[in-house]
């Protein structure tokens, strides 16, 4: 018996299985002759040989011949046993034509027999997992569906009773099923050459097995959908390149670079950013980054309407990193909505770094002056423009002038007094200016120096060094309610029902 065992195990050929069985049949059976510890040990060795030969026979049946010595040497090696099971299933999966479902089920049963007889170092769960993984990676839609029957496809699924044996049919756990599906789908995805590659359909089929679609599965499905968006925008990349791209925002930039009008498809670009998981799971950051790109592209083509729309979205979301593009639009002279430009500059000043405050304040001050110019021009000549200035009639003019009067008044005249005075005199002043429309209009258009307004407005406020009562100095009760238009005697003929102020030479000398 010892000699027979040594002869069989020393043979390294994989085509001697029949001779090994012939030698086994020549050995005495257990129970014949005297029983000693040595004979019992020899019979145990023979029984083990019989199991090893049966495993070798199963391997040969499925086209994976191995020497008997190989089975004996690997029976306690978990790693080698695992690799052997994988080679067995993958070899079956590569057969052409594809094997039937019945053949696959026979293979599973043979694997379980091998595990029980020889490869006890493996757990039976491992056999099911290896078998299911091989089905998923077999490049066959039918086999992928068969793999779905071997798995828990949702977290709420339970083992169903088998109709043939009346006991629960084993299925791979939900967590392991998700892991296997992801591995198989990624393998198909990475090997694809385009969205229309057959491997991409196989990847999608694998992912659709998990019916409750956890986040990891959804991310893979979204990545496949993203390939379609990229193709629509004209970006040609291998699927593997898309997966390996660490800066997903660069893919959005590539889309914008393909065609000058792509920035107008904001909804589709934001959808692509969601599919690509730009900025990870931070949706606000993702939207902000994409909108900034859209604003920059719109500004480069002077599309102020689109730029304004996206800047308003950024401001509404409070995305502070957008201060720079907001300031760019706010300082764009070609954008004529001064009110919106003022809001953009205010947002930029709120969120900009300290180093940018000075420059932005200067630009904002210049914009404020421009708004004031247009407001005054609109009040004097409503028919000549000013449609982009947000005004509300005389009250807006009154407010604008009061602000200037209050900021320029060196004699601390109260704002309420200045406002009251201007309110009663504005209507008369407007009539005077209307009588000299041509001259005044020419003068207003000719003056471009901002300081001209500051100098000119000094003539519309109380005289320096005098209180409000000094300006309208007169007898007791004369024009005390300021109901009449006060003026110099020189202008008396131009104003209906005027109040002619008594101006002394002392006051005239101070004015000059």
TrEMBL record:
Pfam families (UniProt xref): Sec39
Keywords assigned: Endoplasmic reticulum, Protein transport, Transport
Location (main, coarse): endoplasmic reticulum
Molecular-function GO term, any one: SNARE binding
Domain of life: Eukaryota
Biological process, per Gene Ontology: protein transport; retrograde vesicle-mediated transport, Golgi to endoplasmic reticulum
One cellular-component annotation, GO: Dsl1/NZR complex
Sec39 domain segment(s): 49-371
Compartment(s) of residence: Endoplasmic reticulum
Protein name in UniProt: NBAS subunit of NRZ tethering complex
Organism in which the protein naturally occurs: Amazona collaria
């Amino acid at each position: 018996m010892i000699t027979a065992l040594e002869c069989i195990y020393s043979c390294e050929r994989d085509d001697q299985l029949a001779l090994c069985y012939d030698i086994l049949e020549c050995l005495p059976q257990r129970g014949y002759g005297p029983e000693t510890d040595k004979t019992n040990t020899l019979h145990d060795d023979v029984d083990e040989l019989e199991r090893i030969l049966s495993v070798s026979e199963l391997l040969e049946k499925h086209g994976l011949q191995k020497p008997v010595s190989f089975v004996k040497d690997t029976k306690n090696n978990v790693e080698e046993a695992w690799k052997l099971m994988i080679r067995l299933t993958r070899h079956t999966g590569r057969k052409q034509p594809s094997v039937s479902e019945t053949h696959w089920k026979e293979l599973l049963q043979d694997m379980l027999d091998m595990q029980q007889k020889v490869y006890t170092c493996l757990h039976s769960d491992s056999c099911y997992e290896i078998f299911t993984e091989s089905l998923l990676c077999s490049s066959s839609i039918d086999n992928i569906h068969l793999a779905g029957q071997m798995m828990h496809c949702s977290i709420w699924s339970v083992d169903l009773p088998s109709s043939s044996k009346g006991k629960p049919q084993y299925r791979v756990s939900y967590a392991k099923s998700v892991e296997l599906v992801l591995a198989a789908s990624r393998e198909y995805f990475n090997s694809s050459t385009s969205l229309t590659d057959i491997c991409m359909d196989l990847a999608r089929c694998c992912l659709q097995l998990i019916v409750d679609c956890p986040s990891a599965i959804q991310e893979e499905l979204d990545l496949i959908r993203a390939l379609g968006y990229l193709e629509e925008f004209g970006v040609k990349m291998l699927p593997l390149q898309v997966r390996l791209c660490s800066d997903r925002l660069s893919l959005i930039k590539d889309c914008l670079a393909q065609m000058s009008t792509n920035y107008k498809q904001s909804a589709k670009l934001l959808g692509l950013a969601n599919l690509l998981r730009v900025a990870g799971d931070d949706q606000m950051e993702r939207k902000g980054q994409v909108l900034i790109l859209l604003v920059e592209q719109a500004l480069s083509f002077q599309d102020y309407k689109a730029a304004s729309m996206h800047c308003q979205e950024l401001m509404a979301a409070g995305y502070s990193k957008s201060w720079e593009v907001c300031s760019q639009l706010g300082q764009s002279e070609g954008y004529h909505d001064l009110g919106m430009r003022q809001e953009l500059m205010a947002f930029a000043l709120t969120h900009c770094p300290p180093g940018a405050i000075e420059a932005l304040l200067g630009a904002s001050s210049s914009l404020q002056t421009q708004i004031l110019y247009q407001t005054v021009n609109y009040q004097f000549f409503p028919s000549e423009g000013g449609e982009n200035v947000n005004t509300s009639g005389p009250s807006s003019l009154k407010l604008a002038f009061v602000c200037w009067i209050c900021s320029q008044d060196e004699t601390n005249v109260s704002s309420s007094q200045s406002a009251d005075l201007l309110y009663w005199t504005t209507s008369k002043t407007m009539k005077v200016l209307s009588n000299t429309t041509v001259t005044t209009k020419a003068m207003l258009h000719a003056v471009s120096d901002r300081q001209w307004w500051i100098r000119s407005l000094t003539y519309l406020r109380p005289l320096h060094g005098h209180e409000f009562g000094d300006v309208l100095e007169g007898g007791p009760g004369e024009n005390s309610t300021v109901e009449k238009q006060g003026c110099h005697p020189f202008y008396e003929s131009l104003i209906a029902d005027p109040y002619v102020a008594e101006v002394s030479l002392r006051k005239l000398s101070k004015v000059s």
